[in-house]
Design brief:
This protein is α/β, with parallel strands linked by helices. Helices cover 33% and strands 24% of the residues. Strands 3-2-1-4-5-7-6 form a 7-stranded mixed β-sheet, sandwiched between helices.
């Protein structure tokens, strides 16, 4: 079995998210992370899922309906998530930066809104909460967002946040990078 970033992120979530938790999927995409968060938080938990693309919203709704799961699905930028949740209430926030697989290749996350979303998410996280980022780069969206995100997370206050960035050093091309941020 060859591990990939998605498998690592999902394994981390399975070990971290508990029944009753409040989680945000900041980039719903095809709904896979949203569905996992719903299963992990259970009926007593709460999941918000965001995406700007109507196709992503439809795919997420369809997957949740198929699996008989529920999340609040919001068609809005992840940069605006603070309008939908109170500060220091979220247990976990998940991001997939890049583009929707199979979607419009001209639509992808961009550094400006992604950095704003990271900052908004860090304010929403409760102490002890985690943020997990799968950072896809290369291709149409290039390296600008990757470089900006990496620079941004290295500047987070070490007294408040612990940041772990991983990279696949023996994989060709541009394999996505997992990033985990813990709020102290």
């Amino acid at each position: 079995m060859q591990l990939n970033t998605l498998a690592i992120v999902h394994e981390f979530l399975k070990r971290t998210v508990k029944p009753g938790d409040f989680c945000l999927d900041a980039t719903a995409g095809k709904g896979r992370d949203t569905a996992l968060l719903c299963r992990l938080t259970g009926p007593g938990g709460r999941v918000l899922a965001f995406d700007i693309q109507s196709d992503a919203i439809a795919q997420t709704r369809a997957l949740l309906e198929k699996e008989n799961l529920f999340a609040e699905i919001i068609q809005d930028s992840h940069a605006n998530m603070a309008a939908y949740a109170e500060a220091e209430t979220a247990d976990c926030i998940v991001f997939n930066f890049g583009r929707l697989p199979g979607g419009d290749p001209s639509v992808f996350t961009r550094a400006e809104s992604s950095l704003a979303a990271i900052d908004a998410g860090l304010e929403l996280l409760k102490p002890g909460g985690t943020m997990v980022i799968a950072l896809y780069y290369g291709g149409a969206n290039g390296y600008e967002e990757r470089d900006a995100v990496l620079e941004h997370v290295t500047q987070l206050d070490a007294a408040r946040f612990s940041v772990l960035c991983g990279s696949w050093v023996n994989r060709p091309n541009d394999p996505p990078m997992p990033i985990v941020i813990w709020k102290g």
